[in-house]
């Protein structure tokens, strides 16, 4: 689910994300990394370091007039995220256009914070770096953009933070410091072992960076504590100290550390962009600073309640109707035809589903996912192939009984390949739909709605009892499932899936009801979208 709507209000990409197709037509070096997905949309694969680098360099050139070079073996920053941090610092120092002095701890090869701050606001920066390669690239990037009068890149010893960097500048008071600390404590954490919730999906972007950029003793928690220790000695040499965090769990212990040390002014925020979340912490020893308010709970609630959705264009709807007729759907209603295909996919995935009453000219299903059957299909197929190779003497009947499961997993794998290609594509949102009444009342009315359907097993969601409709095509498959998804005690999540009209197009929405992890619903939504679009592309 895209988090762009929760970007900083001044972030230029909040309401106008980068147009990959336009940028590809203008910059040949970026064009080779742009692909077209099944729906005809231009996308970039964020798992390719070259693609991430090309996008960063292109955006800096197009939107800020900056030309930079970044080696693939060093950290490649994403522009919207760094821009969020810059705008938050503007809020901290109360005004982005006044001359300000800042320190960037560990500026990296891109030197992106100083370059953006100097270009946008005319800020002066002291940019520190411990890595030789990063220092050389950062210096060159500053010089080739003619910003040497505003940005000073200095080479500092290992494990140096603020104290050593300010030894020679005893009189200058800085307005702020920024830092993107190393997130991980060791190689295992960097690879996601023991540092990532097992229920979360794998990261959707590549992890680039040198050892000093992504790893530090004790990870980001101990790294920021060292900055706090330096700040207790420097105190009013800086008006604001700030750090960006990669883990939300780091925020509470760091705030507690600041409380124990008696730091008077503390605030935090969250940075939202694409499918990535980051958090930031700031503190000050000044009494007269303006402290920005932390993110409101209302904004988090609104974001949590907003359904996932994707649109099927009119041409795709026509093709899907033909596919549904081939499955035995006799209804001419396009939404019922699409629902038939959705139900078939859910049955193949062993996701429990049941029709529930809904508004006129809509279709609505209650989904209960018992296990994650839509992810890692390729790995499952390979494991089954390995098991077959270990049975060289298996007779023909044994092979015949094994192959059907392979066929099913091959179908899952085909859809997963499409999902892999689109790991960075955002689910399109539908504006202007009055579906909040469903989201608001689903917890209250859903049980009684389903109970009402159970008392009338011959009724479809439109209320026409005893008639053959789209649900007839999947009745045989649905008979293998429990009578009611609500009767299941252990599950991954439950959600309400609506199929509705949007002018001549069809929209599929998925409303969260309850469960363990909303990322799982996001994965299933992407799988359903890719499966439907793949069916159209094969027509």
Describe the overall structure.
The chain is an alpha/beta fold and about 550 residues long. The protein folds into two domains: about 5-10 and about 70-305, Vaccinia Virus protein VP39 (Rossmann fold), CATH 3.40.50; about 305-375 and about 410-535, no CATH class. Helix content is about 40%, strand content about 15%. It has a seven-stranded mixed sheet, with helices on both faces. Strands 10-14-13-12-11 form a five-stranded antiparallel sheet, sandwiched between helices. Strands 1-2 form a two-stranded antiparallel sheet. Strand 4, helix 6 (about 130-145) and strand 5 (about 150-155) form a beta-alpha-beta unit. Helix 15 (about 395-420) crosses helix 18. The longest helix has 26 residues, at about 395-420.
Strand order of the largest sheet: 5-4-3-6-7-9-8
The count of strands amounts to 14
- Overall average residue pLDDT: 77
Note poorly predicted spans. Answer: 184-188, 398-483
What is the chains' assembly state? Answer: single chain
